[in-house]
Amino acid sequence: MSAPRGQWNSKIGFIMAAAGSAIGLGNIWRFPYVVGENGGGAFVFFYIIFVILIGLPYMFAELSLGRATQKNPVGAINKIRPKSFWRLAGFLGVITGVGILSFYAVIAGWTVAYIYKMFTGNVGDFSAFVADPGGEVFLFVLFVLITTLIVQKGVSEGIEKWSKILMPIFFILLLSLVVYSLTLDGASKGLEFYLKPDFSKITGRTLLAALGQAFFSLSLGMGTMITYGSYLSKNDNLITSSVSVAIFDTLIALFAGLIIFPALFAMGKDPAAGPALVFVILPEMFLEMPGGLIVGSLFFVLLSVAALTSTISLLEVPVSYMIDDHKVDRKKIVWGVAGFTLLLGIPSALSQGANDFFTNFGLIPASYTGPDFLSQMSFLFGDIALAVGAISLSIFVGWVWGVDRASDEIEQGAPFFRKTRWLWSFIIRYVIPVVILLVLLNTVHIF
Ligand code: TRP
Fold this sequence. Notes:
Layout: H1 11-22, H2 25-37, H3 41-69, H4 73-80, H5 87-120, H6 126-130, H7 133-153, H8 158-182, H9 187-195, H10 204-217, H11 224-229, H12 238-267, H13 277-288, H14 292-326, H15 330-349, H16 356-359, H17 373-411, H18 421-443
Helix pairs in contact: 1-8, 1-12, 1-14, 2-10, 2-12, 3-4, 3-9, 3-10, 3-12, 3-17, 3-18, 4-5, 5-7, 5-14, 5-15, 5-17, 7-14, 7-15, 8-12, 8-14, 9-12, 10-17, 10-18, 12-13, 13-14, 14-15, 15-17, 17-18
Bound molecules: tryptophan.
């Protein structure tokens, strides 16, 4: 991918890179705590519905737009409607990439620290750890630097090869942890909370959270898949690739829940602990488990790698935009975008107790999200911006570029799509924009 317009080495290379982007902290860290905050089973139910009915068909739209135009989000739109205001939808994606990266890398920094903590068995108190300003900033900067160095080199060589080996190991480790967690005393209470839907707990905020989580977890709504699709060849089958990515991604999130909730209820803790959840429950589980320190540090190594393949995809969107449209040198622009991310991310790094102002930032009211700067960024970029981006991009593909051209593109490499084009066209033109809009309006209390 370091060439101006590279291509994936193989079909599996694309699936691994797209899955690498999708699978990350969103599955292991964000999913369980959002489930916990939103009351459990009913949220999980809507999450799965949204992945299948909205996320997947929408993923075809981003990938086809990218492959057809061979461009980044802004360039893709500009190629179809030159100099139109639709380009704003692309810009929103570019900005959202930096916005998400700025807080995501803070959490990713924590996972790196926990490799060491688990290895030494000296875990300490989570809230004291995140309230230490020097440590927080150091870990955050470190993670942004690693991401930058890899994106600077182009990702196909290093990361594509690594993730092919490491992701399957991660999958197997998670599966074994599921088995372990299910044998803990009191596991069944956790399973009940996690899997038995109580629909009386569903509110507008819950639905947005489920939709936002579906988009966040699949890396949708900001043009990541436009960018990754632009490196695809015409022979690739967009549909089977998307379906494999979505299945992997959803399974890993569901596994994370199957590990966390039984363990959490076995320990008698509160599921609504927020972003701290995974970092409190899992280390405690590892400490009590035979051989847990080794397993625990291996777990955090693999989680750090999963986070890295995601931060790479976040940085790649603004970088590919600058390269395509401003003809700047990859090696230079990467550092520019990284510098901006660092500035934007320091407040998040300091918002977990290190600095009062950022910890109690509270610009967005408490009925939506926590007052700390990190939660506010996560709500603004991880929920709202992705939803707005997805509405704009689905309208653009469905109505402006047009479902016929998009369907022709999808059909290349996936001939069986011919029979279902009408259904997809209906979903992309009507269902997706309307459902997302309703959920969004409902959240900001317009209904
Ligand atoms: N999907 C990743 C995760 O679950 C995070 C991510 C990477 C992302 N690229 C994205 C989220 C683009 C939204 C949009 O960890």
